Amino acid sequence: MTESSITVGGAMSMSLDGFIAGVDDSPKAPLGKGGERLFEWYFNGDTPSRHYGPPFRLSAVSAELFDARADRCGAVISGRRTYDVSNAWGGKGPLEGVPLFVLTHRVPRRVPRGDIPYTFVTNGIERAVEQARAAAARSKKIVMVMGGKAIQHCLRAGLMDEIEIDLVPVLLGRGVPLFHELGGVRFERTLIVDAPGVTHLRYHILNKGGRRGSPRAKKQRKESADRATDRLRRSVPNGEESK
Fold this sequence. Notes:
Layout: E1 8-15, E2 19-21, E3 47-48, E4 57-58, H1 60-72, E5 73-79, H2 80-85, E6 100-103, E7 118-121, H3 125-137, E8 142-146, H4 148-157, E9 162-168, E10 176-177, E11 187-195, E12 198-205, H5 215-235
């Protein structure tokens, strides 16, 4: 398995109106106001996670999917905001034993000691993905991207292959959006699992070949629009288009 063939995925819990945390998130309140409702499904069952154990007790369906997701992960990319509000995960990382790459403009002065080193990447999402893929290739697993900003950077750069959304039936109204100012990205659903308090979705990203504003991306959108128009014309009887 080559580094370039390593899948880059993302995973987030999200409200029906597209938020991954409430307003005013901070290290003291990492989920923001009302954001804890996005994670109630972590604690509404009888099945502990193999990776996290207590206090995580999920439904059997969610636990199986949750742990399978962790099993696939060979490296994690996080944004600096997620790193800060999580208090650096106490040095253990979001998934214990898995290399962590933090996308940031400045390396923090103090980094907690842990079993694995934290790598701070200051020269862009492309370099972060490159390093994370190299780390994940050693275990032949995938790269998992965490945090709204990091996922947005990956999507804009055309570097993400798939994304998993744990969709929670709640409206936050305000907060931290997942898909902020992201247009033109097309998805194909590859998995849907209904579970107590959450619906687990996985999407393959269809047009990850370039940024929205790039010539390649514009050509893809034009070709897609032309095909849709052609299908519409074929479906309408002659002379009916103008009625």
